[in-house]
């Protein structure tokens, strides 16, 4: 006998939790589709030489390799042939480059699959987790209006997920780099300063200022103060965001381009009817160093800043330089759903009460079995999710079972109901019980489900 | 530059194909849920010592092992810590045993995930493929009525998938073993004979008869003929199935139990309203040797017998003997969707024409952009999937784009429409074009989509 157990670092859910998780996946998918994104799925493993094109780094240290039994026995030199994907971006790059001539550009794809990273095992860190990504990929060029559509998608996702008030915050890498230029910070010093400013949340302003003016950077105190005060810019409302961007004044060409792009994004969000409480500029957002080149996004839950960004992304210049000579600029976001789900459970925000089953068709006597089957099929025909009780039990035990399983409705059809052409329905959530005509059973339940939902 | 390519033996789809595949997945899931099955997902990898409890065999030879970079460098002795799942049954056994005290029995679960096998690379054989499984697991006992519900699920799945007429065929291991007993074939000889009869389709009757009466088996010609004539029993219609089972007469206790169980299944399917053309008994079905102990199912497409069984399964005595002292009898089926999808495409049965996007909101002039955004949001609010054209183009080019992308409707709102409070809608599938009030746009499109669907 072997002790049944999962490997460390994975999140395996009980059915009721899985239902809640599945609902989130479905909501995200429906929202992505409502914005015209097309589904893509890629294999869990890629060829190692294809996956690991970039020179090593933290990510590559975390890669899982895959070997068949035969390959394992041969113990060949070099890397194993296959490796598990560690994100959905590299597979997207490979996919777009491989199928470039079969795709229409701008190519709008969503992908919601698990990715794998050999993280150090600790609470809330997962080695297997879902990413839910969208990207719009252009060929040669990509209209900046796509950048401004992305926050509208983020808005729709989190409105529908209904996990609390949230704010989509954005910044622009050109604004940042242009601002640095204006202060005489150029070339690779920009990256070093960016990396330092990215630590503001963790280290605080005083510590970062000390580093920036210290031996490593030797920035003048005045320059450091300007950097910090720039990083402090956050807007509250649409007009305030426009005012704060205007107040930045004129700068280098790059600076002005970034600022104008943010203004255009703000106006487009307004035209799409996104409530102004849901978006803001936040000039402290940097997000990585070498990947993003334009707008960058982060999304936070207003009541839970400790969770950090729940949906991030941005604009990049070239998706697939390792695989294709074509220039493929793009913009996209990612939701790390496994971690988010775990955090929402920890914060008590997710309700895992309801079952996916709508109705339990009960059974009081052997004589009723054929009718119970027919009733179940009738309710299924009406679009309901139905479990049939296979053996007769006392009515109280059947109600108890439904209640514990989170099944909201119980339907019973005994001799009396059959003679009268009726069915007894009970709504466990309200306690309401009623005898209704057989024809009306589906509608009776449906109305109550829809009432709940609205 | 590295050539972008997928590993051999995986099926990666273009978006339009992926949409067709996703629709099948959704249909299967909705059907499983309509019968009250609950979702389970397990990690792609299991601990090797947990996954590989059984003594080696063909399956174990095909296992993929997983190693982190660190573990790879250490080159330790013994098996790597992790291995990819090769089916959903072993993970189910581990799951049920691990979470036994948190689950309600009978436990009805569905699981639709990819599994991995290091198959020899050949056309139509996949190393990564979806399995879509349901199982009902009892604790100590499981009412045989669950066995009879499974074909009703199979029926609903393939009716909804609408890939052609099909027949769910079943047999019963007790009937088979009881019949062998009656012929004096007992113990491990039963398994050897079963294995031989399983080859009937491939080898033909004459060859199998020769083997059964040859040196290895030394069965009398008369006994071999009885086996072959038993294997030939197939029913056409409900009454015929009952008659053929009755005509088998009385046998050993086991034989009679198997026969009675099949009769009960037939009656239950009738009570559920399953059309009698959709199910049949087929006494040649054996399905594996050591796993199934009761009813066994196969499903075939009437017009495509060459595809073989598209949904198979059966009843087993004990799911998790390796992981738990509890006796966990169960019944289940599996659909190998990746291979099925591939076969349906090969046979020209699957239509990959339509996009998941319902409407392209076109753009004729820069002045219309804000209105195009607002219109897109309005249509999304009505539940439609909408792509917005981001840059103005000639109307003919926009129709052409929608047509090529498989998007059925185009919506346009220029200056004239804005002044009149209308929108111009075109249905590319019928050529119908109409100017309708803005308020009625969603309904206009919805009606046509629903008309198509019905």
TrEMBL record, chains A, B:
- Report the catalytic activity: tRNA(His) + L-histidine + ATP = L-histidyl-tRNA(His) + AMP + diphosphate + H(+)
Localization (cell): Cytoplasm
Q: Name one GO molecular function term.
A: histidine-tRNA ligase activity
What is this protein called in UniProt? Answer: Histidine--tRNA ligase
| NCBIfam families referenced in this protein's UniProt entry, alphabetically | hisS
Binding of L-histidine, residues: 87-89, 117, 131, 135, 287, 291-292
Which Gene3D superfamilies does this UniProt record tie to the protein? Anticodon-binding domain, Bira Bifunctional Protein, Domain 2
Q: According to the lineage, what is the superkingdom?
A: Bacteria
Q: What processes does the entry annotate via GO biological process terms? A: histidyl-tRNA aminoacylation
Quaternary data = Homodimer.
What SUPFAM superfamilies does UniProt report for this protein, alphabetically?
Class II aaRS ABD-related (SSF52954), Class II aaRS and biotin synthetases (SSF55681)
PANTHER family linked: HISTIDINE--TRNA LIGASE, HISTIDYL-TRNA SYNTHETASE
Q: Which HAMAP family match?
A: His_tRNA_synth (MF_00127)
Provide GO CC annotations from the record. cytoplasm
């Amino acid at each position: 006998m072997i002790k049944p157990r999962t490997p460390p670092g994975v999140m395996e859910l009980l059915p009721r939790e899985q239902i809640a998780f599945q609902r989130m996946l479905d909501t995200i998918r429906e929202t992505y589709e409502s914005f015209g994104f097309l589904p893509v799925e890629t294999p869990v493993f890629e060829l190692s030489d294809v996956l690991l094109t970039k020179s090593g780094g933290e990510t590559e240290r975390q890669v899982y390799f895959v070997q068949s039994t035969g390959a394992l026995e041969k113990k060949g030199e070099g890397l194993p042939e296959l490796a598990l994907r560690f994100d959905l971006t590299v597979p997207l790059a490979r996919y777009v480059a491989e199928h470039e001539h079969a795709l229409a550009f701008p190519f709008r794809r969503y992908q919601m699959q698990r990715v794998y990273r050999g993280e150090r095992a600790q609470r809330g860190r997962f080695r297997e987790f879902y990413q839910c990504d969208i990207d719009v990929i252009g060929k040669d060029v990509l209209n900046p209006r796509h950048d401004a559509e992305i926050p509208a998608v983020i808005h729709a996702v989190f409105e529908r997920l209904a996990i609390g008030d949230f704010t989509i915050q954005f910044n622009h890498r050109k604004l940042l780099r242009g601002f640095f230029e204006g202060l005489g910070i150029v070339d690779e010093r920009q990256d070093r300063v960016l990396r330092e400013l990215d630590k503001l949340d963790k280290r605080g302003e005083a510590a970062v200022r000390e580093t920036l003016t210290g031996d490593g950077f030797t920035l003048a105190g005045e320059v450091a103060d300007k950097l910090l005060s720039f990083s402090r810019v956050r807007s509250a409302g649409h007009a305030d965001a426009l005012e704060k961007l205007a107040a930045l004044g004129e700068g280098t060409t790059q600076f002005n381009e970034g600022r104008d792009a943010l203004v255009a994004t703000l106006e487009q969000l307004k035209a799409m009817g996104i409530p102004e409480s849901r978006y803001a500029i936040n000039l402290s957002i940097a997000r990585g160093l070498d990947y993003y080149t334009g707008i960058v996004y982060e999304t936070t839950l207003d009541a839970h800043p400790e969770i950090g960004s729940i949906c991030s992304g941005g604009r990049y210049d070239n998706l697939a330089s390792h695989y294709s000579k074509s220039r493929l600029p793009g913009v996209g976001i990612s939701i790390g759903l496994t971690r988010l789900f775990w955090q929402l459970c920890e914060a008590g925000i997710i309700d895992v009460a309801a079952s996916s089953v709508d109705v339990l068709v009960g059974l009081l006597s052997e004589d009723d079995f054929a009718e119970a089957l027919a009733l179940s099929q009738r309710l299924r025909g009406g679009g309901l999710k139905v479990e049939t009780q296979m053996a007769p039990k006392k009515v109280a035990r059947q109600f108890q079972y439904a209640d514990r399983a989170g099944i909201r409705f119980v339907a019973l059809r005994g001799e009396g109901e059959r003679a009268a052409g009726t069915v007894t329905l009970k709504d466990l959530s309200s306690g309401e019980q009623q005898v209704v005509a057989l024809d009306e059973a589906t509608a009776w339940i449906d109305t109550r489900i829809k009432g709940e939902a609205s």
